[in-house]
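Repro:
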Amino acid sequence: MPQELALYGEFSINETILYFGWIYGLKTKDIKERVRFLVDLLDLPPGKRLVKNLSGGQQRRVSLAVAVLHQPELLILDEPTVGVDPILRANIWNYMVREAKEKKQSIIITTHYIDEARQAQTIGMMRSGEILAENAPEQLLKMYGCTSLEEVFLNLSQQQEIALKADTPTKSVEKQFKVRHEKKSEGLGELDEKLSINGNQTIVRDWEYMSCGYLVYLDIDTINLEYYPDTSSCTKAVVEGKAWGCMYIKSTFSEALLERVKRIFLNNLLESVKHTTLSEIQVWLDMTNHQIALVLQRDILQGFDNFTKDVVKQCHVDSTLFRPPIRFETVYGSNRPVFTNFAAPGVILTIVFFLAVSLTALALIMERNEGLLGRSFVAGKPVYLHVSIIFSLCLNIDQFIIGVTATEILFSHVFTQFIVMVGQTLLALLFMIAVFKVDCIGSMVGVIVMALLQGLCGMCFGFVISAVCTHERNAIQVSLGCFYPTIMLSGSLWPLEAMPKVLRCISWMLPLTLATRAVRSIMLRGWGIEWSHVYWGYVATCAWIAIFMIVAILIVKFKKA
């Protein structure tokens, strides 16, 4: 019985005793018979009451009931009678004395109430981690000529103080510590800004105003046009950050463009060159945002290409004469790729992964700090486990094991939290497909399976964090610290081909990189598991699940030892 409560507050009294009784290996019938005896002995409240709603003294009595439930051969109790009524304290001591004499139980009790320990057969007095004396109560009283154990302890403590002063060195050694500040890399920020256009599409068929006709062909989904009286005011808007670009169409554009076309048909190339500069459209762009600049360049060129095709069609001229000598055809995807489709696979897996991390990152910490983990480890009867060689190496089994093992603790959390994780994953995928309209031309089953595996991988990673960290705030900081490097280096937003070589090597070692590539291939290319990009994503995810689980088990077993 630990000094802290070490009970599940959400359990009722009956559920708590049943839970630990089953861990001890008792049958339900035997547990119920034992409960009836303990209720009378410890004056327990009604069994349906939740542990968290009990008073401090009542909670201590429930904890004591759990400790003595299976009548172990060795019973260690840490201050079992703190906050207990004097009559009830006497009953507890009478019970323990009777168990020790009749059933030959070995009972070790720690207490600050020295006089109540007179009923024990042997007393060990400890101060500052040192045993001052150990003997039967009557022998201690006789040895030091005292009438109470309090007086004996006082004499021993005074003797210890005198001995400590004599052994204290005259010079103290001071240790100097240097604090070194680690270099931290700055994260990359993403500006999610969309351009739009308002206005009516009306094709201008007057050849004197061809510039107006061209503006109609600009993509209304990305470009919002604002008109300025001159070039200086237009470029000033770009300099001040009010616009992403400035377009200048000369007043001679329509006439010069028509004349340029006529000269080409008349094979008068020299005269055509003279009209080239007069029919040019000048564009100044703010290139600080690479993505927006690329979209603007693409739409401006694509708009002019569509405009040219329409003009020559009205002139009854074959449009292929004005087609560029280079033609782009898509193998996968569309001619107008959407960044959302590129980023969605990685983003959705990252969300699922770290939602699962949040489910388990604090699980073991809370149980460890409340004493539940230690109590579960020591609960139960001695057993021998014989498993395969690989598990024997990882878990150090084939030894004498008492109580619940680290493997059982972790897998119990996996089974219970997996249900919650499945709901989170399906909800995230539903939003991705139904709300954000992300394209998926491949098997949705493959996407769901990969998302569930990534959720399981995130849960196992959360167990590693929970096993390593000792406080909740540390686990939260580690989880948040892993989020941004993962989403930036796993290929979700930053293509692997654009990364420096060192970062690319790091990226391949992240649990989300191959999975992101696999889901992107399924959704945008329609590939199945027979493709290497896809099945390696599944293999890597399963490997990371095994690695994280084994590491978590080893850490828990190491801390348990």
